[in-house]
Amino acid sequence: MGSVFGGAALSGIGFTVSLLVISLAFDSSSDLGRQATLGVLVAMVLATVLGWLIFKVAARRWGEETADLPMTLDPPVDPEVDHIRGPEDARLTLVEFVDFECEYCAHATGSWEDLHGRFGDDLRYVVRHLPHHPHGPLAARAAEAAAKQKMFWPWLDFVFTRQDALEREDLIGYAAELSLDVEAFIEDLDSEEVAARVQRDIASAEASGAKMTPTFFVDGCRMVGSYDARSLTEMLESSRRGGRTQAAKA
């Protein structure tokens, strides 16, 4: 916000000159003089609002909103607790915080096949929950209920293609479609154990500086900026070459 007001203050120099020109060109008591002055004042307000919007969108797009937050994954990946795709002892680790109702997560998570094709068994992929959409908390608990039946990854792939239907009855229907034990699924869906498991990931997100989804960590370091396949590949390649993993700014 300080940057916005600073920019607005500098822009105000130009508007001040405009007011000076108006005072020289028109009689301040004339209709033209009053209209010109009003126009400049309105433009000042609109410029400030537009500047705020541009800064806000830019900060969200390039990750500047989270730049001052923690950069290290906390706690580190634990094979006994975390959901891991790929070898547990892989050289590279990619962690993603997701919300099952987040359309950007669905696109980003779909990059796994491309990344796995490039890095093979050098890469392990970990998913943690950060539900913040209306159906996110229930969908996260449903994923953990599926995980109790060793079906976390099939569930993730399946549900990310059905983001427009995440009501309770929808999720129970998906459990049946995936041939889960539906009674056990419902019991786990409502259990304190599953709720605590989701809350663990939410606490991890807060401790790690993850404020939105998707948020990625490469070898324990939070990415800042773009999360497209190219950016993820560059970060992973740098780490595989032995380069120091850093926050990647687009």
Automatic annotation (TrEMBL):
Residues 60-194 form the Thioredoxin domain. One of its GO terms (molecular function) is antiporter activity. InterPro entries: Na/H_antiporter_dom_sf, NhaA, Thioredoxin-like_fold, Thioredoxin-like_sf, Thioredoxin_domain. Keywords: Antiport, Ion transport, Membrane, Sodium, Transmembrane, Transmembrane helix, Transport. The chain crosses the membrane at residues 7-26, 38-55. One of its GO terms (biological process) is sodium ion transport. GO terms for cellular component: membrane. In the N-terminal section; belongs to the NhaA Na(+)/H(+) (TC 2.A.33) antiporter family. Belongs to the thioredoxin family. DsbA subfamily. This is Thioredoxin domain-containing protein.
